[in-house]
Design brief:
CATH architecture of the largest domain: Alpha Horseshoe
Largest sheet: 4 strands, antiparallel
Structural class: alpha+beta
Number of strands: 4
Radius of gyration: 21 Å
Number of domains: 2
Helix content: 40-55%
Order of helices and strands: HHHHHHHHHHHEHEEHE
Strand content: 5-15%
Shape: globular
CATH class of the largest domain: Mainly Alpha
Strand order of the largest sheet: 2-3-1-4
């Protein structure tokens, strides 16, 4: 597997743009590069990729995913969903729209967006997080009744997920109760197919992008000559709930892989998290202003 991955990465770097007919396989490579913080590298190759594969859903999702401006990226995600409603990345696009609305404080719109994930995409890896943000959005607008109702519906169809944190003790539905408020028959059929969909292979998900103009501060916690060392630190921090990226820099003529915790609105907030990282993991850190 390691040799295969090295071969794919080298091929991508050496003959960028010369994508084989099975472009769907190559989109996974681009997603892995994005997760490693190499967004600019992907963005540079997208115009040629779009030109060669104008009707590929993965290519268009990459375009939306690498758009820096938040409002522009939301429009691209909406266009993507309209054009490719059955794409394997449709739920990712819906989730990112919801996250943008939530970050902007548009909680009424966000709650509607987040509840679409469990209703429309029963095999999505985002369902638990979508429920969490839906509840928080409803709480922000004082709509606890709506939150309670949808949690009850979702527990009926997704009993294996976690519900204890929401504070409700009566989420179990009586078998004789009719779920008459399910938005439409199509959504009801999709929910009924949850067990079947759970048996399908899970797809790779992409970490949400944060608008660097709104949150320009990052915390650098390491710089490594060996990429694997940077990757190990990133995995450790990610598993502890931090959003982490690996960026390449040139220092004194040497290529280094920096590990950075992303992103913060203020320097004070970044410093607070930096101190927390030092206390928990004994990591030295630097707070940097990196808007791009």
């Amino acid at each position: 597997m390691v040799n295969k991955r090295v071969y794919l990465v080298c091929g991508f770097l050496m003959i960028a743009g010369m994508i084989s007919p099975v472009v769907a396989q190559n989109t996974e490579l681009y997603f892995s590069l994005i997760q490693e913080g190499r967004i600019q590298e992907v963005r540079q190759n997208l115009p040629e990729l779009v030109s060669k594969h104008p009707n590929n859903d993965g290519v268009h999702f990459l375009v939306a995913l690498t758009t820096v401006d938040g409002a522009s990226s939301v429009e691209k995600f909406k266009e993507f969903i309209e054009r490719f409603p059955d794409s394997r990345w449709a739920d990712d696009a819906q989730m990112k729209i919801g996250e943008y609305l939530y970050a902007r404080g548009l909680y009424s719109q966000a709650s509607v967006q987040f509840r679409l994930i469990p209703l429309r995409y029963p095999s999505s890896a985002h369902i638990q997080r979508a429920m969490n943000l839906m509840v928080q959005s409803y709480d922000a607008t004082g709509e606890a009744d709506s939150s309670h109702y949808y949690l009850k519906v979702f527990k009926h169809y997704y009993p294996d997920l976690s519900y204890d944190q929401y504070g409700y003790t009566d989420l179990d539905i009586n078998p004789r109760t009719s779920l008459v408020r399910i938005p439409n028959e199509q959504a009801k059929k999709k929910l009924a197919s949850v067990k079947k969909m759970k048996s399908l292979p899970k797809k790779t998900t992409v970490a949400p992008l944060i608008n660097p103009k709104e949150r320009p501060w990052v915390i650098q916690v390491g710089a490594f000559g060996m990429y694997n060392n940077a990757k190990k630190l990133k995995m450790n921090l990610s598993q502890n709930g931090y959003t982490v990226a690996i960026d390449e820099i040139i220092s004194n003529g040497k290529r280094l892989h920096t590990v950075r915790v992303l992103r913060f609105s203020t320097k004070a907030e970044a410093n607070r998290v930096g101190k927390e990282l030092h206390r928990k993991f004994s990591l030295n850190y630097r707070v940097l202003n990196k808007p791009y």
